[in-house]
Specification:
This protein has three helices and 13 strands, in the order E-E-E-E-E-E-H-E-E-H-E-H-E-E-E-E. It is elongated and about 60 Å long. The chain is an alpha+beta fold. About 20% of the residues lie in helices and about 40% in strands. The structure holds zinc ion. The site of zinc ion has 5 residues, from helix 1.
């Protein structure tokens, strides 16, 4: 969803015509799970509110932004939420690329490599892997294997599974030991590559990702940071 109607549940004023607003539902993904917060607009009648950041505060999604015109809507007012689709779509492509890179690193290293940190949004998308840095030959292979998945244009599927079925649903997922407790898990599956518990936003097919480019490998003493992008 790029847009949705919603209702204002509450707001608090910040400095310089900035506000924190909570809506009854939202299409905005907060800063979480390796993704930067979505941005966009809330519009109603003669007013518009620029959403600059969405924070997950104890499970409540709080939209921080600036009033561009008009007044802040009353509690109970209906508003239209509109994502900045260009920046969200880029993050979707980058997040799917991150899962594809996990697959390529696993293929080249011959084992699932744990990830220690990741950022799947501009300006500098990266993943930190808990393994020694790749050799030049291994790096070429990582690029080749990753872009093979892109060219194959494989469907990216999202399934929801109960806790008891999680082990059957995942495939080559890193960091399972660090996974939080939940009753239902969301698993993002790239057929033949991996199936990873993930709450992030993804494209529908790997072809949408575009060519995966590796910008830099930083050797971090037994770990490495892979800086990437999508063309
Ligand atoms: Zn993910």
């Amino acid at each position: 969803m790029r847009e949705a109607d919603s209702t204002v549940l509450g707001y608090a004023e910040d400095k310089g015509s900035r506000y924190y607003v909570v809506f009854s539902e939202t299409v905005f993904h907060p800063r979480a799970g390796g993704q930067e917060s979505d941005t966009g607009l809330a519009v109603w009648e003669e007013s518009s509110f620029k959403i600059e950041k969405v924070l997950n505060i104890s499970g409540v999604l709080v939209h921080r932004g600036k009033l561009l015109e008009g007044g802040i809507p009353e509690v109970g007012a209906r508003v239209r939420l509109v994502l900045d689709w260009g920046s969200r779509y880029k993050t979707m492509r980058l997040h799917t690329a991150g899962h594809i890179l996990d697959h390529a690193v696993r293929v080249v290293y011959g084992k699932v490599v744990e990830t220690l940190d990741a950022h799947h949004s501009p300006p500098v998308p990266y993943v930190v892997y808990n393994a020694r840095a790749p050799t030049a030959g291994e790096l070429r292979e990582i690029k080749r294997v990753a872009n093979e998945v892109v060219s194959a244009d494989i469907p990216v599927r999202v399934v929801y599974v109960e806790k008891e079925d999680l082990n059957k649903a995942v495939l080559y997922a890193p960091n399972l030991s660090r996974l939080g407790e939940a009753r239902i898990y969301r698993v993002v599956t790239i057929e033949g590559a991996n199936a990873i518990p993930c709450t992030g936003t993804h494209v529908k097919r790997t072809g949408e990702v575009g060519k995966i480019v590796i910008r830099e490998i930083a050797d971090l003493n037994g770990k490495f940071k892979l800086v990437y992008d999508v063309a």
